[in-house]
Specification:
The complex is a heterodimer. Chain A is 39% helix and 15% strand. Chain A is of the alpha/beta class. Chain A has a 5-stranded parallel sheet with strand order 7-6-5-8-9. Chain A has a 4-stranded parallel sheet with strand order 2-1-3-4, with helices on both faces. In chain A, helix 6 links the parallel strand 5 and strand 6. Chain A starts with 12 loop residues before the first helix and ends in a 5-residue tail after the last helix. Chain B is of the alpha/beta class. Chain B has 12 helices and 21 strands. In chain B, strands 1, 2, 3, 4, 5, 16, 19, 20 and 21 form a 9-stranded mixed sheet that branches. In chain B, helix 8 links the parallel strand 13 and strand 14. Classes of the chains: A alpha/beta, B alpha/beta. At the A-B interface, helix 4 of A face helix 6 of B.
Chain lengths: 306, 430
């Protein structure tokens, strides 16, 4: 059994289905007036965040609390990181305090993989560098599943900064395992090399990427990428890659509009698209709490089948 | 001390010798090589080398001994013990120590400490620029006269092309080899592994081959324009091999080296965030490995060096992006060469010895790498048919950062003689 959730790369299609089915049960609890289960009663969940995060950290914290766990948060700026302690020593210290689940976000790829074998706690990767963000992809899949009834056979288009995105990588691993076809689009400077070998179609044209798509997902464009010369301006990005009502028409008429947030209005999508009928961006957030509850419940029981 | 090495196959490509014969050593000097030397009644150590290869001691022209300044990783004694265990009797060590070997004093310190240690011969390499800063030339002439055998800013490139040109011209006057670490920093763009499928798959920043090749071509063009010589360090890509091949055809004074990891491993070794597969230049792809082998075979690549780069476990057991570059290499290089080049039919044994002893000595201008009568007796004896398994915990090096733990190799050195002293005897270091 696997005690950790480090990425969807390492999970089987069955593992993913198990999480999604548990998560749809959990979602009922999240949407109910009485949000409390005893699944994690007596357990301790620590959120160790080395990067700024509002929604993911809060989502994990609420998920833990809805299941009656003790939850604590550590952010890098207020911790011994400032005193030069290594990641391994910090993780061992947290582990030694009786932590059952360690939720970790780190700006460097592979950081949770380094820690997982060294601690008894289950490690959940809440985003590592440009590698993976498995719970984000799971919440995206839960949302798609609820809206479309299936993932098998769907076409999912993902557009934006593909190179720096851990969200796109986890989504590719998860969606293709469940039988979706994935096409990705972005400026040539933001597409990582040999991305097609991950089993996706790669385009430098947003229209081609989203044509006949059942789902159109935008990825956050960070302004700092402009400063490092990867594209000239947000304005030009929007002109060639931003998705407005007109471009959205290339996708299927009932295509879902998704975004992991936080959204830059008028960059990845037009405001009209973000607030339009096809947008499920707010449902994604609700799914996020449910998915994290499901993952923590499974890990606190037996973990994932190998 | 008299030593007689009996019945081994003497492989001495510098003298075009490959035959079964005996070698007699007296007072540290190779006195006689003959089909059958019989010296009855004289007290001496006799080494039975029948069935084994008797080779000139290997010469590694690119390593890091970390001394002075980072003795927690390695020091001159532990480093040269490690070298000797690997059959390497002479090493040239890079100047990125603390303080930098950019002056006569540090060069002299390294030599005296090596002499005191008494294992491999150590030839210091001085820096090209003061403090490796790439701004002003170091005191190259003084270092040469103190014993430096080459100059290099290895670990980082000389980014200023004008300074590199001056360094090559100035060094040529002193007849000292210039070794270039070829990397365009802006193209490397803070990357950690080869730019390709694995960088995408692991979400690690990639380093394009062009980062190396742009600099290789720059240095070749400077050498060509000014008529000076350049030695390209640790070639890792198909493009670099081709650039050197074409330059040699045009008559440019260019030589180059590669390391065992560039003909044995690919970027796939990084999977699972394996920091012992992190080095600079990074491990590349199958196609590059093939090109390196072709370059070794056709003579484009002159030397095999270790780039022995010891690091403390804490410097590798950390986030991939923070892990330091490099691996230890002294104790695995011969075995890797024998297994992946000779056994695989890429090179003959003679050619391997040329690249691991003869050519490095020639490029540095050392009277090493041969078994000539009258030379200091630096000799390595091994049996290439004997398999052995790499166990990093047994390394003589202070550091264990090797991706080869558990690899099955062949030809572990059984006897290693430096200056007529048997330092490794039946595989055991004295």
């Amino acid at each position: 059994m696997k005690k950790d959730l480090l990425g969807l790369k390492d999970l089987s299609a069955d593992n993913i289905r198990t999480i999604l089915s548990e998560a749809s049960e959990m979602k009922k609890i999240v949407l109910s007036p009485h949000k409390k289960t005893s699944d994690l009663a007596g357990k301790t969940v620590v959120n160790l965040f080395y990067e700024n995060s509002t929604r993911t950290r809060l989502s994990f914290e609420l998920a833990a609390k809805y299941m009656s766990a003790n939850a604590a948060n550590i952010t890098a700026s207020g911790s011994s990181v400032q005193k030069g302690e290594t990641l391994i020593d910090t993780a061992r210290t947290i582990n030694a305090m009786g932590t059952d689940i360690l939720v970790m976000r780190h700006n460097m790829s592979g950081a949770p993989h380094l820690i997982a074998p060294l601690v008894n706690a289950s490690v959940i990767n809440a985003g590592d560098g440009m590698d993976e963000h498995p719970t984000q992809a799971l919440l995206d899949m839960l949302t798609i599943l609820e809206k479309k009834g299936t993932i098998q056979g769907l076409k999912v288009a993902i557009v934006g900064d593909l190179n720096h995105s851990r969200v796109v990588r986890s989504n590719i691993y998860g969606l293709t395992k469940l039988g979706a076809s994935v096409s990705v689009g972005g400026p040539s400077t933001l597409v990582p090399p040999e991305m097609d070998k991950l089993g996706v179609e790669v385009f430098n044209s947003v229209q081609e990427a989203i044509i006949d798509a059942d789902v159109v997902m935008g990825l956050r464009i960070q302004l700092e990428r402009q400063k490092s010369g990867l594209f000239p301006s947000l304005r030009e990005y929007y002109r060639f890659f931003g998705i407005d009502d007109k471009r959205l028409k290339f996708a299927k008429p009932d295509a879902l509009v998704m975004h992991p947030g936080p959204v830059n209005r008028g960059v990845e999508f037009s405001t009209a698209v973000i607030d339009g009928e096809q947008s499920v961006i707010n449902e994604q957030v609700t799914s996020g709490v449910a998915v994290r509850m499901a993952v923590m419940k499974i890990l606190s029981q037996n973990g994932f089948d190998e | 001390m008299k030593i007689l090495i009996k019945g081994g196959r003497i492989v001495d490509p510098a003298n075009k010798v490959d035959k079964i014969a005996d070698i007699f050593i007296d007072k540290g000097i190779i006195e006689e090589i003959d089909d059958c030397i019989d010296l009855d009644g004289i007290e001496m150590e006799v080494i039975d080398a029948s069935g084994k290869i008797v080779s000139p001691g290997l010469v590694d022209m690119h390593c890091h001994l970390r001394d002075p300044g980072q003795e927690y990783k390695e020091d001159i004694e532990s480093g040269t013990r490690s070298a000797v265990m690997g059959g390497i009797t002479s090493v040239a060590c890079m100047p990125n120590t603390k303080p930098v070997a950019d002056n006569e004093t540090v060069i002299t310190y390294i030599q005296s400490k090596a002499k005191e240690a008494g294992y491999a011969n150590v030839y210091p390499i001085g820096s090209i620029s003061k403090g490796l800063k790439g701004e002003e030339l170091a005191e190259i002439g003084e270092m040469k006269f103190a014993g430096a055998v080459a100059i290099s800013d290895d670990g980082r490139p000389v980014t200023n092309s004008g300074l590199m040109r001056r360094a090559m011209q100035y060094a040529d006057m002193f007849d000292i080899t210039v070794i270039s670490h070829c990397e365009d920093i802006s193209l490397a763009d803070g990357g950690h592994i080869n730019e390709g499928f694995m960088s995408t798959y692991l979400g690690l920043r990639g380093i394009t081959r062009a980062a190396e090749e742009v600099m290789v071509s720059r240095d070749i063009l400077i050498a060509e324009a000014t008529g000076t010589a350049i030695h390209i360090a640790h070639v890792s890509t198909r493009g670099s091999v081709e650039l050197v091949r074409q330059a040699k055809k045009r008559g440019v004074r260019v030589t180059c080296e590669t390391c065992p990891h560039y003909f044995t491993l690919t970027e796939k070794a990084v999977d699972g965030f394996n920091t012992n597969a992190k080095m600079n230049p990074p491990l590349r792809t199958e196609d590059d490995v093939e090109a390196i082998k072709e370059g070794l075979k056709d003579g484009t690549i002159d030397c095999i060096v270790t780039d022995h780069a010891p690091h403390h476990i804490d410097e590798k057991n950390c986030e991939f992006a923070l892990a330091l570059n490099g691996i230890v290499g002294f104790e695995t290089s011969l075995g890797l060469g024998l297994k992946y080049l000779v056994e695989a039919g890429v090179l003959t044994l003679n050619e391997l010895i040329e690249k691991m002893a003869v050519n490095p000595a020639r490029i540095l201008g050392l009277n090493k790498g041969s078994l000539s009568i009258g030379n200091s007796a630096d000799i390595t004896i091994f049996d290439p048919s004997k398999a052995w398994t790499v166990d990093v915990s047994k390394f003589q090096s202070k550091s264990k950062n090797s991706p080869y733990d558990g690899f099955e190799l062949c030809g572990k050195p059984e006897y290693v003689i430096v200056g007529g002293r048997v330092l490794v005897n039946q595989g055991v270091l004295l």
